[in-house]
Amino acid sequence: MGGFKKAIKLVFIVLLIILASVGICFGGGLAIPFSEKREDTNEARIELVDYGEKKTSNADEQYK
After folding, report:
1. Euclidean distance between the first and the last CA atom of the chain, given in angstroms as a whole number
2. What is the pLDDT of residue 13?
3. According to the lineage, what is the superkingdom (predicted)?
4. Distance between alpha carbon 4 and the CA centroid of its chain, in Å?
């Protein structure tokens, strides 16, 4: 009876190894993450507003 239990354990261990390897084949294993460093991620982005040649009021011209 002791030899039978050892044989059953061995069969189940082999079965688990086979199932795990099949699962890795179907799932593709672990995905290797690649890091792309983003350039200037901490830089504040400011949009410049272009007013063109439009004249503004005299109050705006005082501060130029």
Report:
1. 99
2. 96
3. Bacteria
4. 48
